[in-house]
């Protein structure tokens, strides 16, 4: 099954996971690239996205699997036709004949931007570094079965914390994104819980790159 | 975080953006309900295309924010913005509303309030923020007379262009607002409420309506004569988030031949104008290719009455099968061709059987001229049940003119006959039968033969609901009735005069908005607003209107004459039907609106 890599930026970050599927289904149709349909009572065009992305999170590394219904078009042609048919902010970067098994996907590099309207609190960078150097940082996680306590430290491979100007801190982290999954927003939640004085006025997450467990880029 | 943020960002496929250097007139086109409802509205899509096709005009969309967003906007002092440019509505030249439902009146005022634009027309000076409105509710514009600068009556394809061209000139030549209103009132179909003086008798009824400043005595709605040549948007905005009608939409014809006496659209959308299957097929294919939708719906007031329905569907079905597109044809009548078509489309499988007999006995169905017989219902049910279907939905109204308890119980009887039919015909009885029955509270509407009728009291309506409920014995029946509160207010505003405007304003200031949504509708707020303004809702509901008196909407001419409505009312009380327009013209008068073509009933 072919796979494509796309980015989600700008206003399009507000489109939900389910809606993104619909956006792609329609874009394929507009691009004259008919998709195969699922069997069953209510046939649906077959597209699937590797890791659902939360509303409001930008990404440079989304994977979408699809299957064309008897359409002999080059990979480059698929990319360019889709890009004319897609909405602003969503752009297909690459198309592959075949992707790796999704279960081998395991790590995500993400950046979390923390903005402080009145400047970064004094000693903030150090406090943040110390927080993620602890052995246990427990943050509540909402699941289908209610709220569970989750120690996020084992799911963080490495963290890099930098100041950008006087008001912004960028947390760049390599975290588990599958079995188990750590949502980058949990890093912000941890800060709010353990270092209330470091709670940012505004925060924004971006997915930068995905890897297998040997830290090789996953496609 | 607000729910469904994608509805506030714009940026959808086929959205129109323009370079401000090329724009002379900016229009904020407001839909007084949420994005999901507004984006499903075909009229708005037509006018969005028409306005943006004009040189120097940029029309952008604005929707009512959901409560969570409204709160966030108030907390952050963020004024209401338009989707395309994200610029505040208050910076636009013109603010247009399309109004399809009385209970969105508070949304109109609330949207102006969120924009930071004065609510009352008299408080908006100069050419900026001119507020105008159209849509079916403009056929009785009086409740909004104090807030809207002018109304555009009827179909907007041509008149909107004339209005904007005039504004373009007015702005370039720096006219005053008064000069602009004077000139715009000369465009046929434009109603400037401030140019009409309404005076009342001591009993509260209208004494006189006087036209001022040379404004016309009657303002006649505009229509498009040739639909084949009229603009139709086939390059429509494709929402990135799910909306109510998430599909391509094709309007197959305009007007209605049926004449159900309670139906406002049935009379006010006349005369009937055809659209050829050839043009429709071309527009269907273009719409689907440009949008990527996997469903298309054929819409009209009564699609079975479209003359070329067979030709059109014969051509569309193969295309839709090839391209894996669902063809949906709602509001089909229970005739033979429609039954075959429903089978072919398999829409039955999805939607089940739905009937709107509106009344329980043939006598009352004759009174309201609802041309649907018990036999038609039972035959269609029998066919469907033997084909394996076990679901029926039935819609009725309670409180119709001349209704007695016998008519109410007629509903129970009809449902009982459907259950008997199921027992006789059903091939698959394992799952049992479900009959969903819903009753609505009759609201008399302007420009219908029932425009003078009394609405029954909410108490009496509830008594009839209870009576009906007591006569439903079977477990297969699921009965729902609309709460009367909303329908009572709807009746007030449908036939309201200028004095109810203050109530709408008061209710808005007291926090009423999104009244069409159960979670926000507060009857208490409304009753307090009526009280505060000294307006009695009963004056507009249970009192009824004098047949020889002046009606608040008498200035508005929709084509159908008042004499015809009077005679239809008389025929109704005689319990007689008026055959549909195709069986013979009954002389409603709407054909006088046509110059180039004849009525296609």
What is the topology?
The complex is a heterodimer of chains A (219) and B (601).
Chain A: E1 3-8, H1 17-30, E2 47-49, E3 58-66, H2 75-85, E4 90-96, E5 107-115, H3 124-133, E6 138-143, E7 146-151, E8 156-164, E9 168-176, H4 185-194, E10 202-211
Parallel strand pairs in A: 3-10
Antiparallel strand pairs in A: 1-3, 1-4, 2-3, 5-9, 5-10, 6-7, 8-9
Chain B: E1 25-31, H1 35-38, H2 42-52, E2 57-63, H3 67-75, E3 94-98, H4 105-115, E4 130-134, E5 150-152, H5 156-172, H6 177-184, E6 190-191, E7 196-200, E8 206-211, E9 219-220, E10 248-251, H7 264-268, H8 277-291, E11 295-299, H9 309-322, E12 326-328, H10 336-345, H11 347-351, E13 353-358, H12 362-367, H13 374-386, E14 391-398, H14 405-425, E15 434-441, H15 458-470, E16 477-481, H16 484-494, H17 501-509, H18 523-533, E17 556-557, H19 562-573
Parallel strand pairs in B: 1-2, 1-3, 3-4, 4-5, 9-17, 10-11, 11-12, 13-14, 14-15, 15-16
Antiparallel strand pairs in B: 5-6, 7-8
Helix pairs in contact in B: 2-5, 4-17, 5-6, 8-9, 13-14, 14-15, 17-18
3D structure, described in words:
- The complex is a heterodimer of chains A (219) and B (601).
- Chain A contains four helices and ten strands, in the order E-H-E-E-H-E-E-H-E-E-E-E-H-E.
- Chain A has 219 residues and is an alpha+beta fold.
- Chain A has two domains: 3-99, Pseudouridine synthase I, catalytic domain, N-terminal subdomain (Alpha-Beta Plaits, 2-Layer Sandwich), CATH 3.30.70; 105-211, 2-Layer Sandwich (Alpha-Beta Plaits).
- In chain A, strands 1, 2, 3, 4, 5, 8, 9 and 10 form an eight-stranded mixed beta sheet that branches.
- The longest helix of chain A has 14 residues, at 17-30.
- Chain A is elongated and about 60 Å long.
- Chain B has 601 residues and is α/β, with parallel strands linked by helices.
- Chain B has a domain at 5-220: Cobalamin-binding domain (Rossmann fold).
- Chain B contains 19 helices and 17 strands.
- Chain B has helices at 35-38, 42-52, 67-75, 105-115, 156-172, 177-184, 264-268, 277-291, 309-322, 336-345, 347-351, 362-367, 374-386, 405-425, 458-470, 484-494, 501-509, 523-533, 562-573, and strands spanning 25-31, 57-63, 94-98, 130-134, 150-152, 190-191, 196-200, 206-211, 219-220, 248-251, 295-299, 326-328, 353-358, 391-398, 434-441, 477-481, 556-557.
- Chain B has a six-stranded mixed beta sheet with strand order 2-1-3-4-5-6, with helices on one face. A four-stranded parallel beta sheet of chain B has the order 13-14-15-16. A three-stranded parallel beta sheet of chain B has the order 10-11-12, covered by helices on one side.
- In chain B, strand 7 and strand 8 form a beta hairpin.
- In chain B, helix 13 runs parallel beside helix 14 (405-425) and helix 17 (501-509) packs across helix 18.
- Chain B is globular and about 75 Å long.
- Chain B starts with 24 loop residues before the first strand and ends in a 28-residue tail after the last helix.
- The mean pLDDT of chain B is 95.
- The interface between A and B is medium-sized, with 27 and 22 residues.
């Amino acid at each position: 099954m072919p796979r494509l890599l796309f980015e989600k930026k700008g206003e399009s970050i507000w489109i939900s996971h389910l809606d993104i599927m619909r956006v792609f289904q329609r874009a394929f149709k507009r691009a004259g690239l008919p998709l195969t349909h699922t069997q069953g009572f209510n046939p649906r065009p077959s597209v699937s996205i590797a890791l659902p992305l939360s509303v409001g999170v930008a990404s440079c590394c989304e994977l979408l699997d699809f299957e064309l219904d008897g359409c002999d078009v080059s990979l480059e042609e698929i990319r360019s036709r889709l890009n004319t048919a897609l909405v602003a902010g969503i752009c297909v970067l690459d198309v592959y004949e075949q992707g790796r098994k999704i279960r081998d996907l395991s790590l995500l590099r993400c950046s979390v931007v923390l903005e402080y309207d009145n400047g970064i609190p004094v000693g903030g960078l150090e406090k943040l570094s110390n927080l993620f150097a602890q052995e246990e940082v427990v943050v509540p996680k909402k699941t289908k079965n209610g709220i569970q306590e989750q120690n996020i430290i084992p799911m963080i491979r490495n963290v890099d914390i930098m100041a950008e100007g006087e008001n912004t801190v960028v947390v760049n982290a390599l975290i588990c994104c599958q079995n188990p999954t750590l949502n980058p927003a949990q890093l912000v939640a941890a800060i709010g819980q353990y270092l209330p004085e470091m709670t940012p006025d505004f925060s924004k997450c971006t997915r930068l790159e995905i890897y297998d467990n040997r830290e090789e880029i996953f496609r | 975080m607000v729910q469904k943020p994608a509805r506030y960002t714009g940026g959808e496929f086929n959205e129109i953006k323009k370079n401000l250097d090329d724009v002379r007139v900016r229009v904020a086109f407001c839909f007084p309900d949420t994005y999901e409802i507004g984006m499903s509205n075909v009229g708005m899509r037509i006018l969005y295309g028409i306005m943006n096709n004009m040189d120097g005009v940029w029309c952008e969309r604005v929707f009512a924010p959901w409560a969570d967003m409204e709160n966030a906007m108030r907390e952050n002092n963020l004024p209401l913005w338009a989707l395309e440019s994200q610029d505040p509505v208050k910076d636009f030249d013109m603010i247009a509303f399309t109004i399809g439902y009385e209970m969105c009146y508070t949304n109109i005022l609330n949207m102006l309030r969120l924009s930071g634009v004065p609510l009352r027309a008299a408080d908006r000076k100069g050419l900026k923020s001119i507020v105008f409105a159209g849509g079916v509710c403009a056929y009785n514009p009086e409740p909004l007379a104090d807030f809207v600068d002018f109304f555009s009556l009827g179909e907007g394809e041509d008149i909107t262009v004339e209005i904007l061209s005039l504004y373009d000139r007015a702005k370039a030549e720096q006219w005053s607002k008064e000069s602009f209103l004077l000139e715009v009132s000369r465009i046929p179909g434009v109603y400037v409420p401030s140019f009409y003086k309404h005076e009342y008798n001591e009993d509260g009824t209208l004494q006189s309506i006087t036209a001022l400043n040379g404004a016309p005595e009657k303002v006649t709605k505009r229509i498009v004569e040739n639909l084949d040549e009229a603009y139709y948007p086939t390059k429509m905005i494709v929402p990135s988030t799910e909306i109510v009608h998430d599909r391509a939409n094709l309007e197959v014809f305009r007007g209605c031949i049926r004449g159900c006496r309670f139906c406002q659209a049935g009379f006010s959308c006349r005369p009937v104008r055809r659209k050829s299957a050839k043009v429709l097929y071309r527009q269907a294919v273009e719409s689907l290719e440009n949008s990527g939708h996997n469903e298309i719906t054929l819409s009209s007031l009564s699609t079975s009455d479209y003359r070329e329905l067979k030709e059109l569907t014969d051509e569309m079905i193969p295309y839709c099968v090839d391209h894996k597109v669902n063809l949906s044809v709602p509001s089909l009548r229970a005739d033979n061709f429609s039954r075959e078509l429903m089978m072919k489309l398999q829409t039955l499988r999805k939607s089940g059987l739905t009937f709107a007999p509106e009344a329980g006995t043939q006598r009352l169905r004759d009174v309201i001229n609802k041309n649907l017989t018990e036999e038609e219902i039972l035959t269609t049910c029998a066919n469907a049940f033997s084909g394996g279907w076990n679901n029926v939905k039935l819609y009725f109204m309670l409180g119709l003119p001349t209704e007695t308890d016998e008519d109410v119980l007629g509903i129970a009887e009809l449902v009982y006959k459907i259950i008997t039919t199921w027992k006789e015909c059903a091939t698959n009885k394992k799952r049992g039968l479900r009959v969903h029955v819903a009753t609505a509270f009759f609201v008399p509407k302007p420009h219908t033969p029932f425009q003078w009728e009394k609405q029954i009291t909410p108490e009496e309506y509830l008594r009839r609901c209870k009576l009906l409920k007591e006569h439903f014995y079977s477990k297969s029946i699921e009965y729902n009735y609309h709460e009367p509160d909303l329908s009572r207010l709807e009746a007030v505003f449908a036939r309201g005069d200028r004095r109810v405007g203050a109530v709408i304003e008061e209710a808005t200031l007291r926090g009423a908005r999104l009244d069409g949504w159960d979670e926000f509708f507060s009857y208490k707020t409304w009753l307090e607003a009526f009280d505060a303004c000294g307006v009695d809702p009963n004056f507009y509901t249970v009192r009824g209107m004098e047949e020889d008196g002046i009606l608040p909407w008498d200035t508005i001419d929709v084509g159908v004459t008042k004499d015809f409505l009077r005679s239809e009312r008389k025929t109704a009380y005689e319990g007689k039907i008026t055959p549909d327009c195709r069986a013979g013209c009954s002389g409603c008068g709407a054909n006088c609106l046509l110059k180039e073509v004849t009525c296609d009933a």
